[in-house]
TrEMBL record:
Pathway: Amino-sugar metabolism; N-acetylneuraminate degradation; D-fructose 6-phosphate from N-acetylneuraminate: step 3/5. GO terms for molecular function: N-acylglucosamine-6-phosphate 2-epimerase activity. The lineage of its organism: Bacteria, Bacillati, Bacillota, Bacilli, Bacillales. This is Putative N-acetylmannosamine-6-phosphate 2-epimerase. It is an enzyme of class 5 (isomerase). It comes from the Bacteria. GO terms for biological process: carbohydrate metabolic process; N-acetylmannosamine catabolic process; N-acetylneuraminate catabolic process. Converts N-acetylmannosamine-6-phosphate (ManNAc-6-P) to N-acetylglucosamine-6-phosphate (GlcNAc-6-P). GO terms for cellular component: cytosol. Pfam families: NanE. SUPFAM superfamilies: Ribulose-phoshate binding barrel (SSF51366).
């Protein structure tokens, strides 16, 4: 097992991301968010974009897992889809690179094997984001460092759940000989505990930590629900 993954055993990884249409978008803002997450006990940060990776690495002392979300015409794969994104993240100094490892076709005929090989040659750990057990097994067979359940619910052939796909976490953790990372719609601390008890090596939490608009919406919805009941 690679040193970075040894350091993340039973730990929290905070995903600090904001898309261009979101209020907190900007590398300097995400760097502060990541610093706050580090002070709160996160053991690594997952970040989107080369600029964010650079800014966050300059702000924290914990590993940074880099992705680049980029859309290409004719492909549904948008998390580090081609060699170009891998190269950008390597140049930015990402400690690990995460990428879509589903069975969907990649832009320009890019091959999953080529992305993984480039990371190996650069000596950077690789995190394969999958949506099903079959995809997890396939990614592991290609020599990735770890597999993450990130994309369960985000492909049309995977379970569409409101919460995390804990069944996939349990099945993949039992099947794989490499670390399984739980990620995707984890909103509550007890879900982190459940994922670890089911065999997850570590857990990634995103919106519940770093997207205030989503956090606020849960509380405001609760207030509205109470108001409807009290006014009835």
């Amino acid at each position: 097992m690679e040193p970075i993954l040894q350091s993340l055993r039973y730990c929290l990884i905070a995903s600090c991301q904001a898309l261009p249409d979101e209020p907190l978008h900007g590398a300097h803002i995400m760097a502060r968010m990541a610093k706050a997450a580090e002070e709160g006990g996160a053991s690594a940060i997952r970040a989107n974009g080369a600029d964010d990776v650079r800014a966050i690495k300059a702000s924290v002392s914990i590993p940074v897992i880099g992705i680049i979300k980029r859309e290409y015409a004719g492909s549904d794969v948008y998390i580090t889809p081609t060699l170009k994104e891998v190269e950008e993240l390597l140049e930015a100094g990402a400690d690990m690179i995460a990428f879509d490892a589903t069975g969907r076709s990649r832009p320009g005929g890019a091959r999953l094997e080529d992305l993984i090989q480039l990371m190996k040659q650069a000596g950077v750990a690789s995190m394969a984001d999958v949506s099903t057990l079959d995809e997890a097994v396939h990614a592991a067979s290609l020599g990735v460092s770890c597999v993450s359940t990130t994309l369960s619910g985000y492909t049309d052939y995977s379970p569409q759940l409101e919460g995390p796909d804990l069944k996939l976490v349990e099945e993949a953790a039992a099947r794989l000989s490499i670390p399984l990372i739980a990620e995707g719609r984890i909103h509550e601390p007890y879900q982190v505990e459940e994922a670890l008890k089911l065999g997850a090596h570590a857990v990634v939490v995103g919106g519940a930590i770093s997207r205030p608009q989503q956090i606020t919406r849960r509380f405001s919805n609760a207030a509205r629900k109470a108001a409807q009941s009290l006014r009835a």
